[in-house]
Write a structure and sequence with these properties.
By secondary structure, this protein is an alpha+beta fold. The chain folds into 3 domains: about 120 residues, TATA-Binding Protein; about 70 residues, Beta Barrel (Thrombin, subunit H), CATH 2.40.10; about 100 residues, Thrombin, subunit H (Beta Barrel), CATH 2.40.10.10. Helices cover about 15% and strands about 45% of the residues. The strands form 4 sheets. It has a 6-stranded antiparallel beta sheet, with helices on one face. Strand 6 and strand 7 form a beta hairpin. The longest helix is centred in the middle third of the chain and has 22 residues. The N and C termini lie far apart (about 55 Å). About 5% of the residues have low confidence.
């Protein structure tokens, strides 16, 4: 579908009651080239980030009703599958004069931006990956662990020839039976030797020597805004998956820790993936993604990684 947004305005009206303005449901419907499941996910995430409490209610014919409320405000959004790859979005009643009347337009701008970023990202990943980046792929690993019935899968990479691996914690300290899967599908047992939940970093030791590792001191700090970057990891157990992206924003702080903002594909299991510049120099590690989107992510800077490892 070439046109990813199409508006169909229906008959609508505004009722002025005293000082209260009520927008009657059914004014305009927007058509976007996104599956309804993805649309529900990104809208719920955007509304939650905007301070709303969101309730999703399944309806007939595969439709979904989203009810969003915050501090006396309420917004109702109806999602209707137009096809397998397109969704009609209709804003329902905006309850209370306190509700931001510009919310539907802000929502439309967010969805349009999300689709545009996804299309740009898809084109970026079609370009060849530089050789220096490809040469680092064999140092990355897939990490699996379990605690009772609970299982996790994250990414990581060797940082010395003695089998030491760095990754994100993601509650790894509560797990047993850590398995490290190498690029050649061989599996090793890992032992958690250090973790820091605040910095979201952990070290795992394997009893195996390796010639495939990434020297942290050969890395590079302070990537430039707009600079092209590459992650290599193990999203959804797919070893050696490479994603291209860009540094899309200045460092952000969360829990007093700095993170680089990047436009790059981040899937479940990507956390812990090393991130390189076009010369194959390490600049950081994937921490996670912005809720509601796969293409806005945050990276742990190289300086934080060096500080953590240097405290051993």
């Amino acid at each position: 579908m070439k046109k990813f947004r199409k508006r169909s305005c229906l008959t609508g009206y505004l009722i002025l009651i005293g000082m209260s303005l009520l927008a009657v449901a059914g004014n305009c419907a927007e058509l976007y080239s996104l599956p309804i499941a993805e649309m529900e996910s990104i809208l719920s995430g955007w509304l939650t980030q905007s301070g709303f409490t969101v309730q999703s209610t399944p309806m007939k014919m595969g439709q979904v009703k989203l009810t969003a409320a915050r501090s006396g405000e309420q917004l109702v959004i109806y999602l209707k599958p137009h096809s397998a790859l397109a969704t009609e979005v209709r804003t329902g009643a905006i309850d209370s004069s306190a509700t931001d009347s510009a919310l539907p337009e802000k929502m439309a701008a967010y969805i349009t931006g999300y689709i545009s970023e996804s299309e740009i990202h898809s084109k970026e990943n079609m370009q060849p990956t530089p050789g220096p980046v490809l040469s680092q792929a064999n140092a990355t690993v897939c990490i699996q662990a379990n605690s009772g019935d609970k299982k996790i899968q994250i990414s990581g990479f060797f940082i010395n020839p003695e089998g030491l691996i760095i990754c994100t914690t993601h509650d790894l300290e509560g797990f047993q039976n850590i398995r490290v899967i190498l690029h050649n599908s061989n599996q090793l047992r890992g032992e958690l030797v250090k973790f820091d939940s605040n910095r979201d970093l952990a070290l795992i030791q394997c009893r195996s020597e390796t010639g495939n590792y990434i020297n942290l001191h050969d890395g590079r700090s302070l990537p430039r805004l707009g600079e092209r970057i590459y992650s290599i990891g193990c999203p959804v157990n797919l070893m050696g998956t490479i994603h291209a992206g860009l540094i899309s924003g200045p460092p952000r702080k969360a829990n007093r820790m700095p993170f680089w903002q990047a436009r790059i594909d981040i899937q479940p299991g990507s956390s812990g993936s090393p991130v390189f510049d076009s010369q194959g120099k390490l600049i950081g590690m994937v921490k996670g993604r912005y809720r509601g989107t796969n293409s806005i992510g945050f990276l742990i800077p190289l300086e934080t990684i060096l500080s953590f490892v240097g405290e051993r």
